[in-house]
Amino acid sequence: MATDSPASFRVLLMVTGGIAAYKSCFLARLLQQAGFAVKAAMTPAATRFVGPVTLQALTGHPVATDLWGEGQSEPLDHIEYARWADVVVVAPATADILAKAACGIADDMVSTLLLACDGPLLMAPAMNDAMWAHPAVQANVATLAGRGVEMVGPGSGHLACGTTAPGRMSEPEEILAAVRRIVADLPSEARAVGTEAAAAQDYWRGRRVVITAGPTHEPIDPVRYIANHSTGHMGFALAGEAARRGAVVTLICGPVELPVPRGLAKVQRVTTAREMAAAVTEALSADPQWLVMAAAVADFAPETPAAGKIKKEELGTGWSLQMRRNPDILGEIVPAHAPAGLKVVGFALETSEVQERALAKLQAKNMDFIVANNPTAEGSGFGAVDHEVLLLDGTGVIWRSASLPKPELAALLLQKLAAAEVS
Ligand code: C5P
Fold first, then answer.
1. Which of 44, 107, 313, 412 maximizes the CB count within 10 A of its CB?
2. Residue 92: which of 164, 157, 152 has the closest Cα?
């Protein structure tokens, strides 16, 4: 069983010569802990602040420092290093490297690599406040920003020169967050690594996919309802990623406030489980190839929602509500309306015996795959936080994820599903 992580994303960390270079060692470590594959490059000045051996030990790769291979057993192919990266981060970025990058000067390893990289570039400037304010530096920053280079910081704070002013490199955590944002926007192709990803890359193009997301609200009266903690993030991330991969996506969502991902063929909003059942039935009539039920559909609803607001004065000190079962969309509706060949993916939220219960659910509801998660486990939870899941087919667990942000998880889930289908 493979454990995947954003090792699918490769970060080339370039360190230039400022005192903040020591923080880049923490950054390298943070990036790795977040699951990124990291390689590093350093300017000669940076090596005065931090030894390349430190970054080599942290990243597990030789550090590119010198175009001529001096001091290294083999000269590094700098073009290969540049091609390897999905994202390039320059931290700290000195006034010197900002100027070189703005003008296209290539006179050392880092500036040469910068010219050879064509992916997203993030720079974390760090310098004395007067240098940062200098019009030449600001003009270079504006030139780079105009070319799409992202800047993080500098922050304001105590500088090595003794003043407290803007010029301080952003903290490694902020730089990591910026890298994550960049990666979340990368086109799917840039995320693909290895043969599995390559094989799965085209799988979703043109496929008709129905995805449900979010909770349902079951009215008690016009002002009250029964709901659950589902936020819709997972279903929306899957819908966005499937669309990005070229799928024709119908998203059926319960009441959530999330921005609708770009490129969806249809978005249908529903409130109750019954409405969701009706929407899924209609969507199945359009002959989809996949149904992904990420919605947390309420199992029960109040038997007879009151027409007017129920007054607490009429209820006394206690209140029992008569509930009835909602239709089980996967268990009852889908088998009756599924087009031939439909692949069904369900979700299971379990707080104990996750694997066993998920497998039992897959069998009971005749799904092809089930994504199981435990919201109480470390590294998982509701909402926008990182999440850890298991993917099962009828034989058991076929993939166990690392704890990842949901957009990354969605990309990997679609990759795994496609790989399971094409293999
Ligand atoms: O049995 P449980 O509700 O845990 O199963 C979860 C899976 O079943 C999810 O994929 C969910 O969308 C789906 N479901 C359904 N209809 C229901 C309840 C859940 O399709 N009434």
1. 412
2. 152
25, 103, 161, 253: which one is catalytic? Answer: 161
Q: Are residues 233 and 257 in the same domain?
A: yes
Amino acid in the structure at residue 81: Y
- Convert the pLDDT of each residue in 313-342 to its tens digit: 888 899 999 999 999 999 999 999 999 999
Domain that holds residue 42: 6-187
Same domain, 118 and 258: no
Taking CA atoms only, the protein residue closest to ligand 1 atom 17 is 328
Tell me the CA–centroid distance for residue 293 and ligand 1, in Å.
Answer: 7
- How many angstroms separate the CA atoms of 199 and 9, rounded? 17
3-state SS assignment for residue 260: coil
- How many domains in the chain? 2
Local structure of residue 29 (DSSP, 8 states): H
Residues 203 and 259 in one domain: yes
Active-site annotation holds for 161: yes
For position 193, what pLDDT does the model report? 45
- Is 231 domain-assigned? yes
Distance 136 CA to ligand 1 centre (A): 60
Nearest CA to ligand 1 atom 18: 297
Cis peptide leading into 75, omega within 30 of 0? no
Q: Specify which residues 249 forms β-bridges with.
A: 209
What CATH number is associated with residue 177?
A: 3.40.50.1950
142 plus 255 within the same structural domain: no
Which of 275, 329, 350 for mutating ligand 1's site (highest number of atoms within 8 Å of CB)? 329
Pocket test for ligand 1, best of 228, 328, 349 (most atoms within 8 A of CB): 328
